[in-house]
Amino acid sequence: MMRVVGLVLALLALATPVAGSGSGRALQAQEDVGAPRAEAPLTLLQINDVYSTVPIGGRGGLARVATLKQRLAAAGRTPFLILAGDFLSSSVASTVFKGEQMIAALNAAGLDLATLGNHEFDFGVDVLIQRMAEARWQWLVANIVDVQTGKPIGGAAPYVVRTFGTLKVGFLGLSPTTEGIGLADRTRLRLIDPLVAAGTYLPMLKAERVDVVVVVTHLTFADDRALAERFPEIDIIIGGHEHFPIAAAENRTLISKAGADARFLARIDVNRRPSGAIERFYELVPVTGELPDEPGTAAVVASYEARLGGELDVAVGTSAVPLDGVSQRLRSSETNLGNLVADVMRADTGADIALVNSGGIRGDRVFGAGALTRRTLLEIHPFGNVVCMVAVPGRIVLAALDNGVSRLPAAAGQFPQVSGLTLRVNPRAAPGSRVSDVRIGGELLDPAKTYTLAIPDFLLTGGDNYTMFAGVPLLISPLAGHAMVAAFEAYLVDRREIAPVADGRILIAR
Q1: How far is CA 218 from CA 95, 148, 240, 510, in A?
Q2: CA 127 to the chain's CA centroid
Q3: By the 8 A CB rule, do 205 and 247 touch?
Q4: How far is CA 17 from CA 12, 14, 265, 379, in A?
Q5: Structural domains for the chain
Q6: Are 453 and 354 in contact (CB under 8 A)?
Q7: What share of the chain is helix, strand, coil (3-state, %, to 5)?
Q8: Which of 141, 252, 267, 383 has the fewest CB atoms inside 10 Å of its own CB, making it the most exposed?
Q9: What's the pLDDT tens digit per position in 420-463?
């Protein structure tokens, strides 16, 4: 049984509150003079996995986060804003500005401290170091070292100590080392296991006689739990990577994750009682339109949004041929645009084969030969899907293909567009046994052989009835993969001109 000392949870906007949830008045009462939370000398504010400077679906927005921080400061609190990784990429704006817009907006919002997530490496080490130099906050990275300097990447500190009133707090930063960093960049970096790095630096923090230990991570929840189990001296883990809110207690350690895109902000008020016990008062605050935009941050965000409008019309490549994106044909047969999208996914991941549902390819028209702009790519891929890679036996590949063609001759969004393989389809056969003569690299599919397969995250989670991917080994997860639009742009920039054809990958008996 877990025993929690000095931890008060007041979770808002969660379907199942953890403990201590109450009415708005009850939460407001925590601010009253003499209330335990009101006596806390430090208010930690957490966001993580923030890919947009502006609200999405009415929630989030960095200008609103800035307002919340300023209001707390005006009320006499000591707000300290922390970002637990993943914000330089991936989004359409980040594809254009390579994360510059995120640095500028977070500078304006008053970010105090951040660690690196896997997506900070999407544009390579050189761009990352440039972005780190542009930031006005403290970078905290203990386990990614630049081999040229022998110090943490980009001049980051492995840990820092800050004093808030009578409270002395040590902060340690841990980043992921198992995904997101390309092979070329890995030769320039020394990657240290997060648990090993924690074992090195936590004694140094304790030697500085800190009252509270806060570890800022971008690790999986399982890794955060392992960290808390091994190092019970950690009072708080402010984590990222998962895209949904988590508040959990592992022995005496509070683990917090605030979701994605600043839809929520986690507030943790911290105090030390005369007995030495550490109190942590937790609240998950929805970031909605009820919070007005802070003008300075809003102006920075608006300037980049205005520039983005023009950048969307910039050509990133050229097609020498028209691209057939008519939905009726895409959803019932192979087309050259379908082949192109599948080829993009396969090139992005290096997978043996790729499969995409035709319903994920939009526009419903023939895109004329000529320049392809970012706006065109968004028209083709408006959903924000992410390219993933799985390892699956041939029998699952066959099951996926059979599902894709199961509604023929009707046009359906689940119809597959493929790369790296060919197949024959008999639409008159019973669903589930329509696919035959599947060849990968020219060789017949082996039901027992393992293949690497690139798919959009929509299929990974069972969309369009692709339920066969449940529980398969993930090589590139939705949290580590590139946005489809970003992968598409990179493909075009690399090749400059394309001329995709419908080359007989899917042969349908009519």
Answers
A1: 22, 24, 5, 52
A2: 18
A3: no
A4: 7, 6, 16, 40
A5: 7-309 (3.60.21.10), 312-508 (3.90.780.10)
A6: yes
A7: 30, 30, 40
A8: 383
A9: 999 999 999 998 899 999 999 999 999 999 999 999 998 998 88
